[in-house]
Amino acid sequence: MVLFILLTLLILTFVLFLKDKKDYAKFKTLSNTRQRQKIMKKWLVASFFFYGVLALVCLALLDKVQVLFELPPFLKGHLSAYMERFDTYPFVQSLLKGIFISLVPLLVIGMPLLSLLITYQSVNHPPKKTKKDQSANDVRNLNALLPRNAQERIYTGLLSVNAGIVEELFFRLLAPLLLFTLTNSLAVAIFGSTLWFALAHAYQGIAGVVLTFLMGLLLFFVYLYTASIWMAMLIHAIIDLNGLVLSPWFTAYLTAKKTKV
Asked: Are 226 and 103 in contact (CB under 8 A)?
């Protein structure tokens, strides 16, 4: 049952990736906002049902719906055993707690503020750029997705929130559970599901895959430390909202303001 679900999901992920890659190549050539919004809506619906609804159905079939509200036993057991190693090293425990206590506010509040500061600096004091510099700025191949008007901003906002919820359901809950059940390996469960998460974003190019993999590990750390998938969802959504909604909007606002002056 588990093997069948895993293989089915791997195949469906590959099919969805090929479709997304084809749609994104087309999307990058579009200038008509209605056509762009149509594809955005298509992505929104597809990811909602595949990563979200299908993940919930699979968890129900496996009788694992409780992982929505608590760590799966295999993660809880390994985490407890790992943390016991530091019982005799209170300094290390304090350091880990300090890192996490700093990490969450940094991601939730600090990162958007830093992004706005960088945006403000780049708009008001733009460096001289060559064509090579401009192309290097789009390392994740996402510039085409940035909204061009208020209607598109609504869709990128919905895509960001949706990704934060359904991708965490799929890649931080279901995928690790399936991989651990088959391999009995915590490393395979964590790194395998994170690699799966990164490869599902391969349309962003090699740099996008690497950055997505690192973000996946960061989100897994948040999930493990808080024992709450909802916190991982929140931070994931904030990261995407910052990149696809807040920063582009602030850039457009500052640019328009500077042009009027």
From this structure: no
Please, which pLDDT band fits residue 93 given cuts at 50, 70 and 90? low
Structure tokens at 90: 């209170």
Q: How does pLDDT run across 116-146, given as a tens digit for each residue?
A: 676 666 666 665 655 444 444 566 688 899 9
Residue 254 to residue 190: CA distance in whole angstroms: 41
Q: The whole model's pTM is what?
A: 0.84
